[in-house]
Amino acid sequence: MSHAEQASEVSEQHGLTVRQYLMIGAALTVITIIELAVSYSDLGSAMVPILLALSAVKFVVVVAYFMHLRFDSALFTRMFVGSFLLALAILVALVSLFWADSHTLPLK
Amino acid sequence: MATVAGTLARPANVGVWSWITTVDHKRIGVLYGITAFTFLLWGGIQALLIRTQLAVPNGTVIDAERFNQLFTMHALTMIFLAVMPLGAAFFNFLTPLMIGARDVAFPRLNALSYWVYLGGGLILTSSFFWDAPSAGWFNYVPLSGQTYTSDLGIDFYVVGLLTLGTSSLMAALNFTVTIINMRAPGLTMMRLPVFVWMTLIISFLLVLALPPLTVGLIQLLFDRNFDTHFFVPEAGGDPILWQHLFWVFGHPEVYILILPAMGIVSEVLPVFARKPLFGYPAVVFAGVAIAFLGWAVWSHHMFTTGMGTVPRTVFATNTMIIAVPTGIKIFNWIGTLYGGSIRFTTAMLFSIAFIVTFTIGGISGVMHASPPIDGQHQDSYFVVAHIHYVLFGGAVMGIFSGIYFWFPKMTGRFLSEGLGKLHFWLMFIGMNMTFFPMHFLGLAGMPRRIYTYDQGLDWGFWNMFATIGSYVIGISIIVFVINFFRSMRQPKTAPNNPWDAATLEWATTSPPPEHDFDVVPTVRARDPLWYDRDHGIEAPEPTGEHIHMPPPSYYPILMASGVALLGIGVLSHLALTALGAVVIIYSIWGWALEPTD
Amino acid sequence: MAHATAGHAPAHHRTNTGTDNRKLLMWFFLGSECLFFGSLIATYLIFKGDSVVGPFPHDHAGEKGILDIPVTSTSTFVLLMSSVTMVLAVYGAQHGLQKMMKLSLLATILLGITFLGFQTYEFRTFGHEGLNLGTNIFGATFFVMTGFHGTHVGVGVIYLSSLLLASFRRSGLGPEAGFHVETAGLYWHFVDIVWIVIFTVVYLIPT
Q1: Same domain, B328 and B360
Q2: Which of B143, B164, B510, C165 could be a cystine partner for B494, CB 3.0 to 4.6 Å?
Q3: Which of A41-55, B191-205, B328-342, C87-101 comes out lowest in average pLDDT?
Q4: Is B310 in Cβ contact with A90 (below 8 Å)?
């Protein structure tokens, strides 16, 4: 158990500096502006994947750095990411089941 | 630390107030057990009324409206107020003892879970004074919508289940953390008793399965009371969404009901076969696999809604695959018995009966996995037979096995083996008499949930047979209650380890002291007490050090009353909901500032 | 600390995994919240474009969409900035910088209230333009989903305000101040990432 305890000792000291946090805040703002620009532009079918990818980046950055998951116990990552992936899988399954009725998904 | 608000002077271990303010996991387990057993009796009375009505063709004991309420409330009572909390009673009492801890990770949160459960149970049950829910336990729209059921019953259903869900969520979070973080030295995950593993698994399932139901309930509440149209197709909604959200929760819920019983059986069989559980890792991983696959099968409850070939195939295949880990468990239990030196105690009889009846229910379950067969069985008594073979023949048999097994540990007294065996045989025979004929009735075309049937349909004989069986079950429960009260009048004679069991709860006194263990045990092997016995390792002497236990608190029950007010307000006047919110915030503040040292 | 402890006393060095029980509980609770908002967002996506009558969210058949993207982008920015001030509050609490912690907490609370103000304004405007819970399926899914997100922000505001009030006691937030603020921060950031997803799914992606 000793190395787990050691890890927690270290993790409490970890984290970023104020300057780095501000930089991340600025980066998140920039990504949001890019998202807005994309949503007003005319990128056709590429638009939705780009928007989803950009918001995924923001999501990961907040979780990893603001919520310290990057520096904290891997147990937290497993609990949260596992739950998140389950939520995502159920969301995709539900949406596919319904869109198969009204849209053109080839499930029939 | 002087007496501050919420903290009570000690010792305060007797009297009603000590029970109201207790944060001791054992006392909370007992509270869960007594409350859940009371609800079990109430659910049983509902079942007997249903069976009495159906005993003969054109029965006139109760009318159709009351019948609808009874079969709905029978299911809700048994599932949410009896079987789940009986599982909770066991994992509250046993988990800290089995992992060598002095309490759960969050003792006050544990008390809060119980009081919220009690509040939710009372709200749901009190619906009989107004309008009881009458749209079946899965409460499909549009029947449960305002158009077809305009009385308060469905709102009681929504509020009751939201409240009970809150309770289960808090308990499940608490036990997840407890099992992951509070094990005794040497007790690695792969040395955990199987019952603790199953507790961990159902905790995961509860934490992740309750939110979709919560969302569905909220949408139903809004559709009924706030003019939305989530489930109304004319306005762009879709009633099938309710079915999906319900069963995304509902199927993991089935495993939440059965896994504690599987854990109990996995503890009882090795002790009375006097050999270690056969294939421990296989049993554990089969449990994990069941829980994992349990997420990908929910639509098998909805084959007849017309989902298209691909979804039907996927859900049918996943459902059939679940039979594999379930089968692994069954073979491991049989392997445990094989070559063992078996003691046929009452607990053992219930566990063996569990294997038999659960297997029957499991096999009819695999039959439903095939969409064409499911189409024939849907909404017939065949399905009723299936659910009762797994829930009664499975979960309830397992729970009674656990009651006989751990009764000496919980009370210091033994239940009578003579009366116990009478209880067992009456219950086993009665259960099969009641539910086996339902297979025939279902295949003969009798639909579930009809309040009566006509003379010429030839369903009369087996219905009368099933009704007689249900009365035999009722008698067996009376035998158990007599056994319970007789035993409670006996002196406390149980030694620490009367059955020569292997797990840590048997290392302490019967009943255990408030702090569970004088010295936190060290675990050296998977069956720690057998290992220590065989290697001549003596229990360590108490060092007499001061053991700090968390003080009692009245904030849990105060906060639970706030949660109950939230719900009651939704059913009556929103001012009560606001009052509930104030009570909750006040309780959280008091809770946070209350000293726990 | 000479005697043995039970329950959640500051025993996180003694847990099997070296993690604090309360933090583990918060992380797993947030995992549960993923399923909660996942189900709400799934409902929104399932019914996306299924409204029978207007107002519609985005421009539709010559009719102008009801969503005001510039205003909501501003409120999104406000919530994003509240995450920055939140992380500074955690930094202050963990490094014993009382003033930084209190000021950052205050800023986070005010930004959170500002976000709720924007949401109230948006809901009222929609109401005036004829979009209510019962108008169409967009109204139902939109108000319930964003309403529950707003409720979470409100709970967060109460949570952080309680911490800020407690920090003015003589003993402050006690020896575990950094821990308490960090746990509150986990909740606050989670509410922010939910909004990141909702903003993209509802506002940015057209019909």
Answers
A1: yes
A2: B510
A3: A41-55
A4: no
For chain A, the chains sharing at least 3 beta-carbon pairs closer than 8 angstroms are B, C
Q: Is B74 considered catalytic here?
A: yes
Q: Determine how many CB atoms are found less than 10 A away from the CB of residue B341.
A: 8
Strand blocks (E) in B256-363: none
Q: Which chains touch C (3 or more CB pairs under 8 A)?
A: A, B
What is the pLDDT at residue C97?
A: 93
The verdict on B218 and B234 lying in the same domain is: yes
Query: In chain C, what are the domain boundaries?
Result: 73-207
Query: Which residues on chain A are in Cβ contact (under 8 Å) with B311?
Result: 97, 100, 107
Marked catalytic residue, from B329, B368, B388, B409: B329
Question: Is the pLDDT reported for residue A83 higher than 50?
Answer: yes
Per-residue DSSP letters for B433-498? HHHHHHHHHHHTTPBTT-S---GGGS-HHHHHHHHHHHHHHHHHHHHHHHHHHHHHTS-----S-T
How far does CA B196 lie from the centroid of its chain?
15
- Residue B548 among the catalytic residues: no
Name the residue in chain C with its Cα closest to that of A1: C16
Where in the sequence is the domain holding B250, given as residue range(s)? 24-550
**Same domain for B133 and B270:** yes
Instruction: Please calculate the CA angle B514-B516-B522 and round it to the nearest 5 degrees.
Output: 160
Q: Which residues of C touch B238 (CB under 8 A)?
A: 46-47
More confident residue, B548 or B341: B341
Q: State yes or no: is B267 an active-site residue.
A: no
At what angle are helices B309-337 and B239-273 packed, to 10 degrees? 10
* Position C139 pLDDT exceeds 70: yes
Residue B34 tokens read as 């007594």
Non-local (6+) Cβ contacts of B52 within 8 A are B59, B61, B467
| Domains of chain B: total | 2
pLDDT reported for residue C8: 39
Helical ranges in chain C per DSSP H: 21-46, 69-94, 98-128, 137-166, 177-198
Mean pLDDT of B314-335: 96
Token digits of residue B508: 């302490």
Residue of B nearest to C165 (CA): B589
pLDDT of residue B6: 45
Q: Which CATH class, in words, describes the domain spanning C73-207?
A: mainly alpha
- What is the spatial distance between Cα B591 and Cα B596, in angstroms, rounded to a whole number? 10
Interface predicted TM-score (ipTM):
0.94
Based on the residue annotation, tell me whether B406 is a catalytic residue of this protein: no
Who among A24, A35, A91 is closest to C200 (CB)?
Answer: A35
Contact A63 C193 (CB under 8 A): yes
Rg from Cα positions in chain C: 20
Q: Distance (Å) from the C-alpha of residue B504 to the closest C-alpha of chain A?
A: 21
Is C77's CB within 8 Å of A5's CB?
no
Tell me, yes or no, if C145 comes closer than 8 A to chain A by beta carbon: no
Claim to verify: residue B18 and residue B29 sit in the same structural domain: no
Count Cα atoms within 13 angstroms, Cβ side, for B383: 17
Please report residues of A whose CB lies closer than 8 A to that of B295: 86, 89-90
The verdict on B161 and B231 lying in the same domain is yes
Residue A60 pLDDT more than 70? yes
pLDDT in tens, B428-465: 999 999 999 999 999 999 999 999 999 989 999 999 99
Distances (CA, A) of C200 to C144, C195, C206: 17, 8, 10
Closest-CA residue of A relative to B240 is A98
Task: Specify the pTM.
Answer: 0.94
Query: How many other β-carbons are positioned within 10 Å of the β-carbon of residue A93?
Result: 20
pLDDT of residue C52: 86
Q: What is the CATH number of the domain that holds B535?
A: 1.20.210.10
C-chain residues near B589 (CB < 8 A)? 162
Average pLDDT value for residue range C57-72: 87
Question: Is there a single domain that holds both residue B508 and residue B567?
Answer: no
